[in-house]
Amino acid sequence: MEEEITTIKLKKFAVQELKNVRPYPRETYNDIILRLITQSKETEELGIFDQNAQETKMNEFWSEGDYSGLENA
Fold first, then answer.
1. d(Cα 14, Cα 58) in Å, to the nearest integer?
2. What three-state secondary structure class fits 70?
């Protein structure tokens, strides 16, 4: 079964930026956009992981009453 295709409007600046981030000249705009979406999701997940780790460490400091490491957190 054939995938549905749609048309989207992009400003010329956006098209140029897409061209600038593609690793090889024949990569399609569709592939570029999907790759960027995937990278964005992975970055967001990593950010949440980092945030959770920081919160855990800060809770350890606070629960022990040790605020000496706060300035380096």
1. 41
2. helix
